[in-house]
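[User] Once you have settled down, look closely at the record that follows, and write a paragraph about the fold.
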Amino acid sequence: MRVFWSVIDGLLLPAALVGLYFAHPSIRSDVRPGPSEPVTLERVSAMLSEEGIRHRVHPDGDCLIAGFRTRNYRDRDGDDGILVVVALEEDGELLKVFAPQCYSCAAGPHKDQVLAACMMISWRTKMVQFGYDPSDGEIRCSVDLPLEDATLTRRQLVRCVRGLVGLIDFYDPVVRHAMGTGEVRFPEEEQVRELLELLRRGLAPERRHEGGPDAASRLVRI
C-alpha cells in the first residue's frame, strides 16, 4: 500500500507542475509580452535629439531629415555631405533610414560594374541595401529595421543612422572607381573589419559638430 501511494505521489507532483505552468502564464517562456507602445515620429525625433543629432521635420510631416558631413563622399553638387531621411512605415512597425539620390547611374559605359559594386557592398556589410530606379538612374542606399510589435531603442536608431552614413562614406571610393574605370576594387579587409566593429559598437572614429540649414545634425566622419 505504501508503494501504491508513492506511485500516486510521483504522478501528482508533475501534474501539479503542469497545472501551475498553464495557470501562471508569466512563468512560461513561450508567452509573448503584450504589445509595446507604438513608435511615433515624435519619439524618434526625441531620440535623435537626445543623441545630439540635429534634424528637422519634412514639410509634409511624414519623415525627419538630417545632414551629415563626409570625408570621401560628395553629392551631385560636389558638397561633402549626405542627406539622410528617417521615416516610419506600416503604422510604425518599420523604421526606414535612407539616403535618397545617393548616386546616379542613368547611363554610362560602366553601369553594370557600378551596380555590381553596390550589390557587393550590401553582401559585405549585411546591413545596408542599395536600390536602383531604372526610370531615372537613382541609386538609393537604405537600412530597414522591422519593429513589428517590438519597441525601438535609441541605440538601434543611432546604429542605423550612423551605420548608413559611415558605410556610404567608407565605400564611396569603391563606387566612384567603378564609375570611372569599370573595375570593382575593395579596400583592405583589415580596414573593413575595423570599420564594422566601430559601427557595431555604435561609435564613429571621429566626430564634430557643424551648423547650417542643410547639415543640421551631428556630423560623422569615417
Q: What stands out?
A: The longest helix spans residues 154-181.
